[in-house]
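Checklist before submission:
- one chain only
- standard amino acids only
- sequence pasted in full

Submission:
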Amino acid sequence: MTTDTSTTIPSEPAQPPEPSDVYDGEDSDLESVFNDDDFTDDGSADGEPDKIARNYNRQRPLHSSQQKPTANTSASVDDQIAILSKHAAKIRLDNVKEGQDREKDKADRATSEQVLDQRTRMILYQMINRGVVSEIHGAISTGKEANVYGAVAYPDINGPPVQRAVKVYKTAILSFKDRERYITGEHRFKSGAEKGNSRKMVKLWAEKEFRNLRRIHAAGIPCPEPIQLKLHVLVMGFLGDRKGYAYPRLRDANIGGEDAEQLWRDLYIQLLGIMRRMYQVCKLVHADLSEYNILYNDRKLYIIDVSQSVEHDHPRSLEFLRMDIKNTGDFFRRQGVDTLPDRTIFDFITNSEGAVEEPGLTEAIEKLYTSRLPSSNDETAAAELEVDNEVFRNQYIPQTLEQVYDIEKDAQKIGEGEGDKLVYRNLLADQVVSKPDAENASSEDESDEGAALESDAESDDESKFSKGTPRGKKFQDKDEKKQRKQAVKEAKAEKRKEKMPKHLKKRLVATTSRKNR
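Returned file contents:
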């Protein structure tokens, strides 16, 4: 027997299979799955159940249905871009991470015409969408605090358009720096204004004008009708014609003709009546009333720009009222109107008694003209009026009794019947400033009776302030206490004589309860 000897060759490291070898292995696996020897004639498998499941799972991924793409891949690139362009605004291409604040850009606060920034435009778009206004046109006027734009609204689709005004307050450049003195001290704005945040200040200022306009319009004073307020954008009625032309300011009003002098005088009287109604009915002082904040049309005056108006109990309301009287008086004097003294107008406006509606206002003002002292020379009268006005403009006006400089001196004037000379007499009670009656003056002439009356009056006054007997039993006299106690004892003894004995009372109660059973 022959034996074949062979040398053992060391095995080389296994090389990774070629791609063809991998595919051949997969084909062999598939052949084993579909091998006919594994199945019997009746279609059942000879192998074990776990082998059947394993073979099924191996072939399942190969025969699963593939999902077809829903997009139309054959469409052109231009069509796809057109379809996706409407979603471009939702795609963020910046490098802002989640939770990181986006850096603010100056473009977000950039304004045109000093008022129209991005936030203001969004507010105007919202008003247009809600139907408050339908169109917004160019600027009607520009001022130190706001711009006013013309607008058109269509409240009825088939009806004519309605002209409206949109007032947008400036937030970029605040040229009106002294707003705080109009807000501080007013109970409607207790929180005051934040100096560091200009937008909050402007928002508070717009709200202030909206409230003042609503109060003035409700009183029947000619002014724009407030419609809606959103932050620093105010929509109000338009003072102008149907074509969109605004009424001119009183300074620019073209008043001429033969009756120009009389018309200026009528407008002056009309303005005094408006100032009194604002103070007495609306409880407001305009605080910036001049020919620039008054519109004129068809012999009628309209009050505008009431954002700085303050309540009548504001700490500086009387100072603002005196300034309004000065500004309006100077303007009408330049127009040749015979004006009343500033002190007389101040008393007329602040006096709580009197008419506040027409024609009573005009009649009261005409009485002020007739009650003036006659003057022989016009130049002398003008000089006296100027001196009186300058004295009044520089005079200190207290708002409360705590602010009175020399209260003893003023009290002496009131006692002497000179209370009417006090500049703040309309702020006092009526019975304090009233003059002595004529009967008291006549009684002073009669010596005997007058002395008796004075002594009686003094005794009455002293009796008013004299202290009476203190209340309480501990302040009574000892004898009065004994008498009172003795009287109480006797009253109780008399009451005990008529009292039913207790045993009789129990017996009576027992018998009545048995009968009720």
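Reviewer check: The longest strand covers residues 135-142.
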